[in-house]
Write a structure and sequence with these properties.
Helix content is about 40%, strand content about 15%. Helix 6 links the parallel strand 4 and strand 5. It has one domain: TIM Barrel, CATH 3.20.20. The radius of gyration is 20 Å and the shape is globular. It has twelve helices and eight strands. The protein is α/β, with parallel strands linked by helices. An eight-stranded parallel barrel has the order 1-2-3-4-5-6-7-8, surrounded by six helices. Helix 8 packs parallel to helix 9. Bound molecules: 3-methyl-2-oxobutanoic acid.
Length: about 280
């Protein structure tokens, strides 16, 4: 048995048990190479449908397909060993009926080997969440700002900015928790609301622009690395990789154009079998 085989992957019940425990560290990843890095530090890797905007340059997550999520989910599973990999269900793959949701989720779990799925929505998704969890699909919920609803909500503005608007969001969070989700993403809500929901629900809350009081936090990797051209106001940038990458590409282009490119034998160590 190799050392790799000894690493046990976290499960949805492991994450569920972290309510009010050590904060849950989560980031998104869409590729094997970033998953490898993130896996060392994170409890959850989310293959978010944000990949539509980050990787593919779409304006919203609405055009993302199930096949895109499955392809990138495979890559992240290959790149990681320890973190629970959660894959987002894209718009149109689960809302029509609980049966449609089960068929789509079953494809994701079977074809990628991931440990859980995430879907957006509150009270109106509760019946589907209960149906899925009763049939072996671990579900992470997502309330507050739900980007797949962009065409009905009109903008990516924070939700529940006025106390008068908190009730429906709290009701959504409670409905998702009571339906059997193992964790709940709360996106872009007023800080006191994020804190209140965290106190009220029995499952771990994972905040993104919600509250430091949440049981864990998540960010889009490219946003916190300084690789995304536009980021929400709440994102703290932990790196500025965009300018560094551009400088490296510019130096490469200069080398190629000035024929200062190193000879091939200096660039790659020869593999034994090629010698
Ligand atoms: O798609 C995504 O990356 C997400 C996170 C922002 C939570 O849903």
């Amino acid at each position: 048995m190799s050392a790799q085989d000894d690493i046990k992957r976290l499960t949805a019940p492991d994450i569920r048990a972290r309510k009010r425990g050590t904060p849950i560290v989560s980031l998104t990843a869409y590729h094997a190479h970033t998953a490898r890095l993130v896996d060392k530090y994170c409890d959850i890797i989310l293959v978010g449908d944000s990949l539509g905007m980050v990787m593919h340059g779409f304006e919203t997550t609405v055009p993302v397909t199930l096949d895109m999520m499955i392809l990138q989910g495979h890559a992240v599973m290959r790149g990681s060993q320890r973190a629970l990999v959660v894959i987002d269900m894209p718009f149109g793959s689960y809302e029509q009926s609980k049966e449609q949701a089960f068929a789509s989720c079953a494809r994701v779990l079977k074809e990628t080997g991931c440990g859980a799925i995430k879907l957006e929505g509150g009270r109106h998704m509760a019946e589907t969440i209960a149906f899925l969890t009763a049939r072996g699909v671990p579900v992470m919920g997502h309330v507050g700002l739900t980007p797949q609803s962009i065409n009905t909500i009109g903008s990516f503005r924070a939700q529940g900015r006025d106390e008068a608007d908190w009730g429906p969001i709290e009701a959504d969070a409670k409905a998702v928790a009571e339906a059997g989700a193992f964790a709940l993403v709360i996106e872009a809500v007023a800080e006191p609301l994020g804190r209140r929901i965290t106190e009220q629900v029995a499952i771990p809350t994972i905040g993104i622009g919600a509250s430091a009081a949440c049981d864990g936090q998540i960010l889009v990797l490219e946003d916190m690395l300084g690789l995304s051209p536009r980021v929400p106001k709440f994102v703290r940038r932990y790196g500025q990789l965009g300018p560094g990458i551009e400088a490296a590409i510019a130096a490469y282009a200069d080398d190629v154009r000035s024929r200062a490119f190193p000879a091939p034998e200096h660039t790659y160590p020869m593999r034994k079998k090629d010698q």
